[in-house]
Amino acid sequence: MDIFEKCYADDYIKEMIRNGQYPYFLPLSENEGNVASYKGKKLIMCGSNNYLGLTTHPKVREAAIEAIRKYGTSCTGSRYLNGSIELHETLEHEIADFVGKKAALVFSTGMQVNLGTISALIGRGDYAVLDKDSHASIYDGVKLSYGKLERFSHNDMDHLERVLQSIPEDAGKMIIVDGLFSMEGDLAPLDLLVPIAKRYGARLMVDDAHGIGVTGGGHGTSAQFGLTDEVDLIMSTFSKSFASLGGFIAGDTDVVQYIKHHARSMIFSASIQPASTAAALAALRIMVAEPEWNAKLIHNGEKMRKGFRDLGFNIGNSVTPIIPILIGDNDKTFEMAQGLFENGVFVNSVISPATPPGRQLLRTSYMATHTEEQLDQVLDTFKVVGKKVGLI
Ligand code: PMP
């Protein structure tokens, strides 16, 4: 049996490429945040995680350039050995303050935060209890651990309780959920999760990759629920609102110290580069000093949810600027995405098998820097294409 056989076989990806419908890995020639170009065609960007629009903020650009001047282009090693710089620690202190935790630890990507943190904490005989819709990096973190994986239906607290009841009472347990779910823009019910975790002696970790900068006035989903002290661990990434690359875990000092010495994805990988560290720090300081970006983002999200509902689109349970357009069919999803693209709007197609059958959707997300005119144009385009495709 040749392990390459599967690579040569025909599959849905090859079929999409043949049909000219392949919407992934499109190399943009320009990206100014709210507007991007593909082969010279201008597109209103409604498919990025640049929620606050800070990738083009002059202070963020300048901070990254300045860090390269001071530290060069790379730290050329692990945080553990030669790869730590003062900027990492400054960022960790300011992040911990911002999310309301005692300590924080930065990693080179958010994926690595989840891989390293979860595999360090979930040991033999322990259980990781995940919302089924948890991000892939959370699942992979559990796979790398010696513990067991249990799942509950998305945001279904009765199911969570049944799962917890089935786990031996004295086993170590950690419930892990996304704070703001990245595909459908809904929130984990932390007000219900916190008392359940307490009742069953489980720790609670919230992946707020999409929440920080967006929910809780920017401080995240735990802050939105007023439960920062009750959530044991908060992780996030710098690749979204922080306009950079990297990620962090925040929690009690001893727990973060333990992760620092056991997270293999941090210890055995080079540290976050100076430019990315400085960009994340500059973005964080803008979040603190200029809360109007968050206010504008929330306003834009509200405007678009109302706009889509008024047009008759199904936007599920979104309560944030991440707004899914639920379609439930691969072909219609592509047809819609293609129509939008041709008319100058960039969105993300999420189809089966990436999503359960019946849950195919266009993932749209809005930014603080989108103008009213751009958003009105997006709604007008959705109206025209949605009618043509027969969605509304
Ligand atoms: N968690 C969630 C919920 C995410 O959406 C992502 C990124 N898509 C990550 C973790 C990983 O973050 P990064 O891009 O920094 O690797």
From TrEMBL:
Coiled-coil stretches: none
Descriptive protein name: 7-keto-8-aminopelargonate synthetase
Cofactors, names only: pyridoxal 5'-phosphate
Key words, A-Z: Pyridoxal phosphate, Transferase
Family: Belongs to the class-II pyridoxal-phosphate-dependent aminotransferase family.
Keyword Transferase: yes
InterPro entries cross-referenced by the UniProt entry: Aminotrans_II_pyridoxalP_BS, Aminotransferase_I/II_large, AON_synthase_class-II, PyrdxlP-dep_Trfase, PyrdxlP-dep_Trfase_major, PyrdxlP-dep_Trfase_small
Domain Aminotransferase class I/classII large: residue ranges: 43-381
GO MF annotations in UniProt: pyridoxal phosphate binding; transferase activity
